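User: I'm putting together notes for a lab meeting next week and I want to include a structural view of one of the chains we've been expressing. I don't have a solved structure, so I'd like a prediction I can at least talk through. The sequence is below, exactly as it appears in our construct file.
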Amino acid sequence: MSAFAGDRFTTGLAVTAAVDIVAFGGTWLAARRIGRYNLVDVCWSLAILAMTAASFRWSVHAGGDLARRSLVLAMTAVWALRLAWHIRRRNRGHGEDPRYTAILREAPGSVAAYAVRRVFVPQALIAFVISMPLQVAMYQRGSRPALDVIGAVVFVTGLAFESVADAQLARFIRTRTSSIEVMDKGLWRYSRHPNYFGESLLWFGLWLPAAGDWRGLVGILSPAIVTYLVGFATGKPLLEKSMAKRKPAYAEYVARTAGFVPRPPRRSRT
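Assistant: Thanks for the context. Below is the predicted structure for the 270-residue chain, given as C-alpha cells.
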C-alpha cells in the first residue's frame, strides 16, 4: 500500500475547491446584502476550516492516520473559530474597512462585481493554497507521532502568543486615555506585532504534521505565504504606515522594538 492516498487526494481537491467556491460565494452574497465587504475577513478562516472538514470527511476510507487527521482538524477548528470571533468582535460597530473602501472606490462599474474580482476571488485562491498541507495530512498513511507532537507544541505556542497579544491590545484600547498613546506593554514590549508573529508561528505548527513526505514538504509554502502576508504585505507594513501618521511617539517605539520576531527592547541611546 502506498504511503499516500493520491487518487483519493486528487478527487478530494475537487471537493474542497467546490467548498471554497461556495464559502466565498455565500460570503459575497451576504456582504453585498449588508453593504460591508469586510465580512470576508470574518469568514476567511471559516472557509479554511470548511475545506479541512470536507477533506477529513472525504479521506475517511483513504487509510490515513486517524490521530493525525483528528489533530489537524482540531487545531484548524480552534484557530479558525477564535480568529473569526476576534475579528467579528473587533469590527463590530466600525463600518466598512478602509482598505476595502479604497479598493472599491476604483470600481469602473458595478461595485459588487468589482469586489468579486479584487477581493473575493484572490482571497478564495489564497485560502485554497494555504489549506493545502491541512488537506495533504488527511491522506498520509502511517504514524509519525514526533512530527504531530512537535506541530501541536508549535501551534499552541503560536496560538497563545496571538491570543494573549490580541487580549492585551483590546484591553489597552478600552482603557487608554488618548488615541495617540502607543501600546508598548506586555508582549508588545518585545515585538511591534506579536499577534502577527503568533499567527505565523501557529501556521508552521499546522504544517508540520503533513511534513512526512515530499507533498507535505512542498506545503511549507502555506506558512511562508501567511508570514509574507502578515509580515511584509498587507499586515505589518500597512498598519505601521497608518500608526506612524497618527501617533507622534510611534517612531521611538519602532526604534527600540523588534518589528516581528520578539526580542528584548533596545536601550535608549540618550
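A couple of points you could mention at the meeting. The radius of gyration is 20 Å. The mean pLDDT is 90.

User: Perfect, that's what I needed.
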